């Protein structure tokens, strides 16, 4: 069977059965050229001929250069520019306690949600553990202990938390910048009073959420 | 082997100071009254008169006049800075107050000077919580564990509406309420007003009288002194240091025999000395205000108005070991004994020697 299948067609069979006619070599060349030209209209004739001469192809790995998009990634300001532009400073007319009271309400809501409703019988450890990782913007804090006596007694809403300072707005509409170092803050929510030892708290708010606090070291100022 | 400096210092005895000065009691520029007045808190006054059997009546009545003082239990400190108190007592006389049973090196201590300065000596933690500006204690070393806060109650800027007054009141009333037992004494010049007894509630205040003891010492060896020889002269008179030492022994009833079998003390009276048949020793213990001491000193000077056998007499005043100040506002600390005392030696011609002694943690006396 196989021999039959792969065997040559008897001469003349092709012409008779299929109506195909063998072409002369000149005709064949012209046909190939026309075909190539039709299928690759952009390529030049010489280039096609070049391909047809079957030159050896050098096999080498070559990097496809990624096409750089024309749109550049929008780069932010540098820290220096930010400082010069005073981006993170609150304008004097905005420094009013009343403006930030809704923020405080929001914060209270946030802490209550965080601590599963903050029931009065909740474990203080749980509350503290949550507060440790929580965002403090909007909390009302008081400086209870300080190496510098002038800071003692400042009470207000935290507007900004930076690595080393809290910016606090007091009831008298004064913006106070209180360093965390050597200060102890107290924070009251629904009867739970927590103390923040600022010296151990010198992190940005975002970094703090991931930080693991160790129960080591002295808490003395 | 060389010792490092701090180790070498440990081997030394703690510093003590004895300042001595000589003047005449009637001299116009004599500072004896000022020195007495500057030493505000006195717990014991004793005087020794050689060759004296019974006390003259004048002195007796003076001793009886040494005013009574008050013990106030559990007084909140903020009551001393209220304007009612300042107007009734501090501004109308000299008001002395000192915390009672507080230790200067471990507790919080407060003292109200007659000049109207309230001095708080507080430990580090209290200072950090209190929120009042102070300065670190001079004797606290590298790591400050004690702070001194001075509040001038007589300052005209300390009026009731001032920020300063509000802050002090807030700190002592709400922030960190401090409660002490106080020894109080008040003397007003002339003007009659309400008294401390009626100002404070009855169950809090208690009147105390100074305790007075008399004793006559027999056959006492007394050093020979010459008023113009402070350093003493061999074979002629004793120096002030020798006298000071001898007086300490006499006041503490140390035997002066120098017996070979005494294992406690082999102290003997400095040379040259005389044996005095009898000497009168009187000790007053309590909270004694400087005005009473000035009066007593004046009367003791008058003792020589009539011819007497004695060549000199002494008046010794001990300050409180745990008071935050010694003279004026100079800081006082308790290192080994907390001693701060002075001693007058009054001679027959009314020349006097004044010896002022302090322990280690003290400023030099004035």
Automatic annotation (TrEMBL), chain A:
SMART domains to which the protein is assigned, alphabetical: POP4
Q: Which InterPro entries match?
A: RNase_P/MRP_Rpp29-subunit (IPR016848), RNase_P/MRP_Rpp29_sf (IPR036980), Rof/RNase_P-like (IPR023534), Rpp29/RNP1 (IPR002730)
Where does the protein end up? Nucleus, Nucleolus
Tell me yes or no: is 4Fe-4S among this UniProt entry's keywords.
Answer: no
Keyword Transmembrane (UniProt): no
Listed A to Z, the keywords are: Nucleus, tRNA processing
**Its domain of life?**
Eukaryota
Q: Which family does it belong to?
A: Belongs to the eukaryotic/archaeal RNase P protein component 1 family.
State its role: Component of ribonuclease P, a ribonucleoprotein complex that generates mature tRNA molecules by cleaving their 5'-ends.
Q: Its quaternary structure?
A: Component of nuclear RNase P and RNase MRP ribonucleoproteins. RNase P consists of a catalytic RNA moiety and 10 different protein chains; POP1, POP4, POP5, POP7, RPP14, RPP21, RPP25, RPP30, RPP38 and RPP40. Within the RNase P complex, POP1, POP7 and RPP25 form the 'finger' subcomplex, POP5, RPP14, RPP40 and homodimeric RPP30 form the 'palm' subcomplex, and RPP21, POP4 and RPP38 form the 'wrist' subcomplex. All subunits of the RNase P complex interact with the catalytic RNA. Several subunits of RNase P are also part of the RNase MRP complex.
- Protein name (Swiss-Prot/TrEMBL): Ribonuclease P protein subunit p29
UniProtKB/TrEMBL annotation, chain B:
Q: Would you say which domain of life the source belongs to?
A: Eukaryota
Return the InterPro entries for the record.
Answer: RNase_P_Rpp40
A Pfam family it matches: Ribonuc_P_40
Q: What is this protein called?
A: Ribonuclease P protein subunit p40 isoform X1
Q: Which organism is it from?
A: Apteryx mantelli
